[in-house]
Amino acid sequence: MIEIQNISKHFGNLIAVNDVTFMVNRGEIVGFLGPNGAGKTTTMRMITGFFPADKGKVLIDGIDISENPLEAKRRIGYLPENAPLYEDMTVTEYLNFIGEARQIPNLKSRIQGTISMVGLEKVSKRMIWELSKGFHQRVGLAQAILGDPDFLILDEPTTGLDPNQILEIRDVIKKLGETKTIILSTHILQEAEALASKIIIIDNAKIVAQDSKENIKNLFQVTNTIKIIYKNNDNFEKDLKGIANITNIKQIEEIKGAKTIIVYANDDIREKIFNKAVETKTTLLGLTRELASLEDIFAKVTRKEVDNEK
Amino acid sequence: MKNNTAIFKREFTSFFNSTIAYIFITVFLILSYFFFFKSFFINGFLSMRSFFDMTPWILLFFIPSVTMKIWAEEKRSKTNEILFTLPVSDWNIIMGKFWGAYLFVILTILLTINIPITLLFLGKIDLGPIVGGYLGLFFLAGVYISIGMFTSSITSNQIIAYILGAAIGFIFYVISQQFVIFTASAFFTKLFTTLGLSYHYSSISRGVMDIYDIVYFIGFTAIFLFLNYIVVKKRI
Question: Tag placement on chain B: N or C end, fewer CB within 10 Å?
């Protein structure tokens, strides 16, 4: 279990992390979500013992990382953002260095196992600087999991990768999540959704929401902005105005007779729109509720906090 | 827990992974042999005096090029994030890097060992100053490395680390030399000869083993390693 108790960190006048508290239970994958500069990396650096918190405590399995750093660090594998590695070594040499520094027993077989787990067999003898971004990131993951730590801290593990590589790395993380406790940071909503069981949202150095994925997801989906694509009815917009819940309609584009419009409403009126389309013999090509953007969520959760304080 | 030598091994081998080691060794050997043979045939007697007079200057400008990368490069490439989250203490990392660089420099200096061996075959020589001279160079190298590591720790720019390292080493080397002391008052003469590297170096390289000089060199190295520790602990 990782317990973060009221940690703060400032650099000069800048408050990077302000009184952050959360808990990660064994077996959870926690998505640490927030825009760039929100304080994700600083928080992770305190959890991994890179630098101490100005205030507050970090407990890894009950071990205070500032009191017993070596014991705590032994339990953590850390992949920093962009996987900074010693580029002048081969993959195997590098993992050997990490293994010796971590004093991992049966190192040779451990390295072999890790290499095949993250799919590095083909490049294990290559210099790290020669590797593509995707393989580079895998070596970063490999060094993090080499000592078979119980906790993995992954800072933006998919940033800078192409879509195929993102899926591959996500698969590896999912596989790791079966046996390990993982905190991973991201600024992409879908990523947290795809991997995490619990989501913590941080903005402006503070935690603004933390909940199970399902509850957070509701926050994402309660927009009632609906995108409609239709054809064969020039008056459909007028027809829609008969639905009471609609507050505004915006035209987006028209391609080969298919019109796209956005409908703003105060309720989920997809069914009403569908019925209206049937009624007016309109051909519906698309009818989707727009997902809230991260900005919408931040606006929403911060507004909620203000409401609660009142 | 057994001794953790991973950082030391990584540091030592990293010199050979880049071209800098080979350039360093080649230039060092060319210069030191040049200064030795330049006066060897003129003087016509078996002494390494000119070698031991000049090599501290060569080291003064070469060791910062070995140490400049030690922290600056870790910071620039952010590899220190993994380094400092390994279950290894800050002191272990600092000493690992120190001994890695130290072993490299000592081996480079020892590549000149064929000079005294040649002298042995040529005739009777006084071994005291030669053994003392090498020991003096080793102690001096330790000081330069600890200074260079310190200046590398306060910047992520290797050039700045080099210039500062060479400058600090230069100041501490020259303050006890004749042309500085010549103009100083009695108090400063005392202070400068106590602090100055060249004073203690020349005393050892004359073949006089004084415990006072040895304590001076080890203490000097330790002070800069401690400054290094203070900076590294701050993670700036």
Answer: N
Partner-chain contact A78 B77, CB within 8 Å: no
What is the tally of structural domains in chain B?
1
DSSP, collapsed to helix, strand or coil, labels residue B145 as: helix
**How high is the pLDDT of residue B228?**
96
Quote the Cα angle for A45-A209-A224, to 5°: 135
Mean pLDDT of the region A10-32: 92
Give the number of C-alpha atoms closer than 13 A to the C-alpha of residue B138, restricted to the C-beta side: 12
Residues pairing with A246 in the sheet: A265
B43 lies within 8 A of chain A by CB: no
Is residue B1 one of the residues assigned to a domain? no
Residue with tokens 């064969």: A232
B38 pLDDT more than 60: yes
Chain B residues inside the 8 Å CB shell of A87: 77
Q: What is the pLDDT of residues A238-270, one digit of tens each?
A: 888 888 788 888 888 888 888 999 888 888 888
- Beta pairing class for A151-155 and A246-255: unpaired
Bridge partner residues of A255 (DSSP) = A258
Which one, of A159, A152, A162, lies nearest residue A196 by Cα? A152
Domain of B221? Answer: 6-234
- Mean pLDDT, chain B, whole residue set: 91
- CB-based contact (8 Å) between A195 and chain B? no
Going across the sheet that includes A225-231, the strands are: A246-255, A258-265, A225-231, A283-289
Q: Cβ(B45)–Cβ(B124) under 8 Å?
A: no
Domains belonging to chain A, first-starting first, are: 2-212 (3.40.50.300), 224-289 (3.30.70.260)
